[in-house]
Amino acid sequence: MRFDWLLFTMAAVSINGVEVTFERIEQLSGFDILHSTLRVRKYNATTTVLNGSLVSLFAFNNSHKISTIAFHSSLGNQQFNFHPVKLPSAPACISRDMLYDEYGQYFSNVYNLPEKHVCPIVPQEVTVLDKVFPSGAVPAFMPPGLWKAFVILSQHDIELSRFAILCKVTGYFG
Question: This protein's superkingdom (predicted)?
């Protein structure tokens, strides 16, 4: 079953022309709000996957906002420049529903996600098992290099939690 999925993923990457791999994920702040054991590990010689869990320690509602900030390093040497590409900032429940609408087909190997259209989002544990980065979710115009994205949870413009996600984009044929 996993081999069939891997072949499908490789075919999708070939069509899209962009391959994205996880490099690292880390929680930078907000350990009293969210608890993360998410880690990037080698699955085989050529594939990295995301594994672990994310536990919310209290309920989130639309007074909480989720935003992103993206940075790009064209040489992959950790010299990042701000990049205007990002997911729109939105209240937590609306962000969750938007993710379901836009990227729901990429939620395989992610378990116990909060239900769509239910607000507040109750405390729970989301588990990720051997999740390959869904390269099909990335627009073909994304330039190659190293990308860093901050995902920020805030309430009333006060930052509560921050995560950093590093990914490598290769195979751009545009």
Answer: Eukaryota
